[in-house]
Amino acid sequence: MSNSELDGFLRAAKAQGASDEFLVRLMQQHGWPERSVYEALGRHYAESTGLPMPAARGALESAREAFFHLLAFGTLSVWMYAIGSIWFTMIEYWFPDATSPYYGSRSWRIREVSWQIAAILVSFPVFAYATRKIVADLIANPDNAASAVRRWLTNIALLITALVFIGDLVAFLATFLQGEITARFAAKSLVVLVLSGAVFAYYTRGVNTRGAAVLNAGWHRQFAMVAGVLIVLTLVIGFWRTGSPGNQRVLAEDRRRVQDLHALADTIHMQWEASSRSVEERKLPGSLGELQSQGRALYLRDPFTQQPYEYRVVDGAASRYELCATFGQASEAPAMGAQPSAWWHGGGRHCYAWDAGRVVPWPGGE
Q: Which of 140, 158, 267, 137 is closest to 203 using CA atoms?
């Protein structure tokens, strides 16, 4: 039987009152593929109604929908993580811990905070754009709310958020049972709970498959407004800690000066020890020009002002000396309860007193 014969048989059967389900089962028993039967039924209804069969959503349209959902979720993850990272850094500053490797450090993760600020400034506008495209598509095509692509991506986002939420609760309870709850840990846990809870609420209410798309659009706007307030607050705190780009430049120049002075002091220490086997006979170099680089780069001048670094042997001391430089601004005050760094300096001219018989401490975060 050809397709035309199948079409004629189905028209005659439908005229006798046969149901679609009966005809599909009947033709399958006679070797016809289910798809061919449904296509024939479609041609029958298109002919009887005088309307063409509506075209299904193409692969390109589904790919476009998936792109905007993935873009929205990806950028949401980026700026949410950046907000959490900045607040984590603030909490570490407000609640210092002597066991932390950043305890008392001058730099205090300033570079990391700068990266997170940049991530927020780039990813949030992209998220807003992708979300606007999704909402506009839902308003124009409400039936797209039930699309398989949208449901899958939404549920994956909810799963990831739920796992983060559960993991944070498990960590909090485990720490509590071990008697190690601190204000620092509790504050960090609260940040994770708030951010993951916000994402969970956003996807369960604002990206659901039920209800009017217009109502969902209102929820998207509310979420964007609240997120905007949180972002502004976070950026204010972040810029308060990092300072302006100009201030960051001054800090970078001062870090370079400290590194140069450390290299000079370390070379003085090695040259002093190599000058004689007897401690009593060891001598300090008469000037920085007498230092032997020993394969390392030594800078005798400030690379920004071209002024020479100052070197002076302390009178009456065999191994005591000073190294001086002019700094752009004072070092950041140490965290509460921390000791100032050995390389702390004030703004302007500052001198460090060292003993050539001892190893000079590493500047670390300076």
A: 158
234: its two tokens: 């976070």
List Cα–Cα distances, 182 to 50, 86, 98, 175, 304, in angstroms.
Answer: 73, 19, 13, 9, 44
From 9, 187, 166, 156, select the one nearest 69 (Cα to Cα).
156
Q: Reduce the DSSP state of residue 320 to 3 states and report it.
A: strand
pLDDT band of 312, cuts 50, 70, 90: very high
pTM: 0.59
> What contacts 366, CB < 8 A, 6 or more positions away?
106, 107, 254, 255, 258, 259, 331, 341, 343
347-366 confidence digits (pLDDT tens): 999 999 999 988 888 886 55
Output DSSP code: residue 308: B
Q: Output the pLDDT for position 277.
A: 79
- pLDDT (tens digit per residue) in 160-194: 777 777 776 777 777 767 766 678 788 888 888 88
Token duo for residue 309: 């670094």
Q: From the CB of residue 357, how many other CB atoms can be counted at a distance below 10 Å?
A: 13
Contacts of 315 (CB under 8 A, 6+ apart): none
Residues 6+ apart with CB under 8 A from 128: 224
| Cβ neighbours of residue 82 closer than 8 Å, sequence gap 6 or more | 116, 117, 119, 120, 123
Q: Is the pLDDT of residue 2 over 80?
A: no
Centre a 10 Å sphere on the Cβ of residue 317 and count the other Cβ atoms it contains: 12
| Sequence-separated (6 or more) residues with CB below 8 Å from residue 151 | 209
Q: Which of 81-85, 90-94, 225-229, 239-243 has the lowest mean pLDDT?
A: 239-243
Give the strand order in the sheet containing 348-355. 310-313, 320-327, 348-355
Say if strands 348-355 and 320-327 run parallel, antiparallel, or are unpaired.
Answer: antiparallel
Burial class (CB in 10 A: 0-12, 13-18, 19+), 358: exposed
Residue ranges per structural domain of the chain: 3-49, 59-243, 248-355
Q: Give the tens place of pLDDT for each residue, 331-350.
A: 876 655 555 578 888 899 99
Q: Higher model confidence: residue 124 or residue 55?
A: 124
Question: 69 with 150: CB under 8 angstroms?
Answer: yes
